[in-house]
Amino acid sequence: MNNLFYVVPALGLIGLIFTIIKSRWVAAQDPGLDRMKEISKYIADGAMAFLKAEYRVMLYFVVIAGILLGIMGYSNSSSHWSIALSFVAGAFLSALAGFIGMRIATKANVRTANAARTSLKKALAVSFTGGSVMGMGVTGLAVIGLGGLFIVLLMTFAPGALSDTQEVARAIEVLTGFSLGAESIALFARVGGGIYTKAADVGADLVGKVEAGIPEDDPRNPATIADNVGDNVGDVAGMGADLFGSYVATILATMVLGHEVLGTNGVSLADGYSGFSPILLPMLIAGAGIIFSIIGTFFVTISENAGLSTAKVQAALNKGNWGAIILTAIATYFIVNWLLPKDTTMVLRGTSFTSNGVYGAILVGLGVGTLMSVITEYFTAMGKRPVKSIIRQSGTGHATNIIGGLAVGMESTMLPVIVLAAGIYGSFLCAGLYGVAIASAGMMATTAMQLAIDAFGPIADNAGGIAEMSELPGEVREKTDILDAVGNTTAATGKGFAIASAALTSLALFAAFVGIAKIDGIDIYRADVLAGLFIGAMIPFIFSAFAIRAVGEAAMAMVEEVRRQFRTIPGIMEGKGTPEYDKCVAISTNASLKKMLLPGGIALVSPLIIGFVFGPEVLGGFLAGATVSGVLMGMFQNNAGGAWDNAKKSFEKGVEINGEMHYKKSDPHKASVTGDTVGDPFKDTSGPSMNILIKLMSIVSLVIAPTITKMHSADIHKNLLQKQEDIHNLLKAEPNQDARINQFLLENADTAAMFTLHRPTLIEKRSSKEFLSKNQMGS
Amino acid sequence: MNNLFYVVPALGLIGLIFTIIKSRWVAAQDPGLDRMKEISKYIADGAMAFLKAEYRVMLYFVVIAGILLGIMGYSNSSSHWSIALSFVAGAFLSALAGFIGMRIATKANVRTANAARTSLKKALAVSFTGGSVMGMGVTGLAVIGLGGLFIVLLMTFAPGALSDTQEVARAIEVLTGFSLGAESIALFARVGGGIYTKAADVGADLVGKVEAGIPEDDPRNPATIADNVGDNVGDVAGMGADLFGSYVATILATMVLGHEVLGTNGVSLADGYSGFSPILLPMLIAGAGIIFSIIGTFFVTISENAGLSTAKVQAALNKGNWGAIILTAIATYFIVNWLLPKDTTMVLRGTSFTSNGVYGAILVGLGVGTLMSVITEYFTAMGKRPVKSIIRQSGTGHATNIIGGLAVGMESTMLPVIVLAAGIYGSFLCAGLYGVAIASAGMMATTAMQLAIDAFGPIADNAGGIAEMSELPGEVREKTDILDAVGNTTAATGKGFAIASAALTSLALFAAFVGIAKIDGIDIYRADVLAGLFIGAMIPFIFSAFAIRAVGEAAMAMVEEVRRQFRTIPGIMEGKGTPEYDKCVAISTNASLKKMLLPGGIALVSPLIIGFVFGPEVLGGFLAGATVSGVLMGMFQNNAGGAWDNAKKSFEKGVEINGEMHYKKSDPHKASVTGDTVGDPFKDTSGPSMNILIKLMSIVSLVIAPTITKMHSADIHKNLLQKQEDIHNLLKAEPNQDARINQFLLENADTAAMFTLHRPTLIEKRSSKEFLSKNQMGS
């Protein structure tokens, strides 16, 4: 095996070493006063308790699903029982990624609060380093896991084989189990964490801010610890598992398609790596992306005398992000041209392309990712037209605020979808379906940096909570608020990025699925496929319905518990009685674990039912429907939620509606709080789950593809023949058919040869007179 | 030409005669007191002013679009310039249908109010007769127009031709212009009317009920006339044009597919009608449906001593509706078996079926329609779980009420989509694509009755308004309120029915499009087609965004005008100064006309751009995306809106939340009013526009299909050849390929013949050795 194979996990290892070093640095920082340590311990304990409970539930799932997978793999010659081990490895590493993230976040939060007692620079350093630990940890684990497992599988199933052999196909098929494991844990972590955090947040707000009139994060509010735990389990652990899953799925989809890339002569590429270069490329780009992300983190710093400036913090993060992106864009040019065979035409399913095309596709991917972030920011940022329109509509009450937000959310789908469609089309033009996949891999290359920027937000948010609960001076909270505000913006743009990458990844998985299922396409003009399209498109609606309802119901339970504590614990409102924080933590924990099962189950089971009962082409229609509707619902909900949030925040500094100034506690502000509360489950529970939902369903389909194809082979065969006949009839009816057929025969001699070889059979069956009479009739 | 052709318009004529007789009966009723006449004149004048203004805008559109269509038809040999005339005829009749409906509604409203001074039985008779006039008028015009035009076109283009000839294809292609005309007017009427009615409604409520504290329909409120005008232009004229368009589109789609139905020998059916029986069938069913709907109207009556019972009114309407449906179900059995050739296998694009299968598909259609109504009723009815869950969530405020309603709306898509998918699949199994189309034609057969039931609601609503404004005794309002409440339920179920029929019709149009575009299918696995799917699915989101925003903005303008009048007209609040009703009418009129152009334009122009630039297969992907997402968004918005409305209405009699009773003016009630206001544009503007949107885009595509196919013929040809090659490769890689290919060759001798005829060319090009070496490689 070429040494290059070992470079991939080695790059991942560098990421992990960085993680360990930085993690130690964070732990070495001063956690501050006793009161701070005490509160941060509450939060850390609550978070750990949730994670333990969550992982216990998932353990059952992993064991059962693993056994079923093993049986399926065992009974199909294109797969192997060890797909179960691969699945368990993916699930374990995904859970570990979430764990690492939460572990560091619950250390970094209190240390950020303490650093904020000194300077903003220091606070940024601690919180962003916390985020980086998570970013490098998640991506490092993914690259090591995927790269290492691939080596093991190749050695087991295909030692020394060429890339386009059945043995390698089998190794990759087993590898899909890894992605399935990662993505299933991601779904449960994201949905469970999303329900947890919003139930606590909405519950704490409704009864604390609205009913009791005490400020946010007030230690007298029994739900306040649960609220801060929620930031960690939803925004940190949930997101970590989510991006781990996305990252793995993207790389894997590109590998599956890369396996099908051949030379023009129809055999493996002569690339010096036994034709493996298109398979190795996405892994190498991912590994290199970790290094560039590490370099990018060094740009993220502000000067000691920067003052209390949101803009400077944002600029520092942007510098880091752009640094990583530009380095990746430059480096991939060399990686692509060095790895892929030079001046050689590659072919994937009839589309030819060169290494320049592949690089072009990567640039398209980076462009799509950037544009998505910019557009998302426009629709959710303060001071821009969309948020201002919601503010204006808050002037006439709750209802018009809601109408305004819903309209913004729906409208916000237009530009991203056009960018996405153009990206699909453009990357396809560059390098066929491999281009679409590699575009998404390029976009995801800087995931480590994205994740660092994303995870820094909830750490800062938590730091603010700890400062408040520890009754630190206002200037501390001021500094953490600056970090938190920047975190809100990066959270919104991160979601735009996530949904775009999910869409491209799903398309790549979709293409991989068609290849593995051995069908000629997904024809939605077939009634059963169209029915599948409808069912698929409905799934994101029903999934969202269950997710947001879960938040609503869990929040109501939280409200009742807090009301009970206010009523029954003596001296609680005077700060003398200690609230029973753990009871609220338990409510959020139980509710989220119970209520994540139904939506999660739908996501896992529905493609199984459709696939096994109706076959791969209907399942393809189902996937397309789910992907399209999931992308739209994701954008709609994320952006509506983000816009509502910032419309509410705008009231803090005062807003002008029809020439009159309005501030907090005014009627328009109350209307804006309604919008924000509606937006909470939209943007933090159901919206961000959409991208996992569509990827998970695609991966489930990919994993079962060989089995369902075998089951439905007679139908598939019949359809292929029918299709062939239809196409023939259409070609026959065309004007100038003879000249065209001639040309086709010249170009596709072997198809014609097949028919000519069987000529005798035909002559017996029908006279040429009969053929000609039918032929002249037209279709 | 067989006499049967003339039966179709004759049946329509019976409908029109019924319309005239009943219309005279309504006009002969007593309009009551002078005050009532005065107010009803205000409403009638306002409505007529809007219709005039609206039709003036549409006139420009019809002239311009007509000229473009004429040019397109002239330049394509499969079409003809007279498609422009066909388009104008469709547009004119659609507008006329709306006009007739509004004319009768503005007469029936005041007479219903007057009848309610005597008895409920009388009031029901007047209002339902008004509705029936509209129902029979709309369907009568549609059947006469379509049937008559078809005769004229056949006589012009294809006198004496067999059904499967190019001449008949051309006549049907020209006929699609009629449907395009009808559906474009429907879109503008529905959107314009929807914006008008909700701007007036929301505006009148916000400033009247909330700010000034005066009851609904109070004559002191300047917006109250506009509100009542809105019921007529939105719920009557808009809906009339809408259902006219749906009805025509459904019949037409079935005719297009019927034209492709052949005998097993590949030539026209030997049915005694030159093969026209599958084309005539949908028109005859529609014509017969009018007669059964007329019979059904005689069931709709209650006894004089029925008391003030909502249930009895509902039961009377149900009896009429069920009567019409059952009669249709029975009669179509005889029509189908008498018209279609007995014991003959018919073939459409490779699928065989018999007349029994066709009848089965009609039953599937009727079943789907009924189930959709039942499910919709469940999700929006008072006292059922969904509405009760919203009521409970109103207990914790505006935000949870909104979350609850959104969750109900999203959840409500599940069962209808499953029913729809099963309907698509089931009707396809019965009779192929013709089955899908005829299922939708069967479902639409009783449109006249549906429309009568639907239109009676706004008439009763208006009657209540007139009673209130004329200060008639409370018992009058009590009677009209009963009719109004029943009208609300029928409105919700009618929408469920409309979206289901639109989905089936769109699929039929979609199938017709594939045939006319001469492509082999719509393969969403192609990157460009998938990009089209994304863009298409985004259209309903952006359309909804513009529609609901238009309502929000027009309502705000209305609020400001009413505030101005309250401020500047002396004595207005004491009932001494006369409000300037016409100013408010003008605001709604102008706003709706201006704001309907953008969404309407998107619907018309986007399929043109996609089709002309990217060709028919991408346009097919676009249509599929738009259909799926439009159906889901339509259900989501209609049902959320309906559920919010009834959650609010439940407070009138008092509701129990956590053991406590809440009534009007309580905090939970206020939260429910917020939900209702958000739901208004959902359920009356954007939601019901979805079904026109998807049908209109399908028809636009059908009309341009021959032209874009010609433009993109080289690409289509290349794709067909590529596909043929792909299929060949897949077949080649299959196990037991030789036996299977042999069997295929036996069954499809002429495909093979084509290849063998060209054998010499091939032999020159490649040696068989080369072929064999490639052939053994696998795919």
Automatic annotation (TrEMBL), chains A, B:
Keywords: Cell membrane, Hydrolase, Ion transport, Magnesium, Membrane, Potassium, Sodium, Sodium transport, Translocase, Transmembrane, Transmembrane helix, Transport. One of its GO terms (cellular component) is plasma membrane. It is found in: Cell membrane; Endomembrane system. The record marks A491 as: Determinant of potassium dependence. It catalyses: Na(+)(in) + diphosphate + H2O = Na(+)(out) + 2 phosphate + H(+). Its EC number is 7.2.3.1. The chain crosses the membrane at residues 6-27, 57-75, 81-102, 123-155, 279-302, 322-340, 360-381, 497-517, 529-548. Its main location: membrane. InterPro entries: PPase-energised_H-pump. GO terms for molecular function: diphosphate hydrolysis-driven proton transmembrane transporter activity; inorganic diphosphate phosphatase activity; magnesium ion binding; potassium ion binding. Requires K(+) for maximal activity. It is a multi-pass membrane protein. The keyword Repeat does not apply. Signal peptide: none annotated. Its cofactor is Mg(2+). GO terms for biological process: sodium ion transport. Coiled coil: none annotated. Pfam families: H_PPase (PF03030). Sodium pump that utilizes the energy of pyrophosphate hydrolysis as the driving force for Na(+) movement across the membrane. Belongs to the H(+)-translocating pyrophosphatase (TC 3.A.10) family. K(+)-stimulated subfamily. Homodimer. This is Putative K(+)-stimulated pyrophosphate-energized sodium pump. It comes from Arachidicoccus ginsenosidivorans.
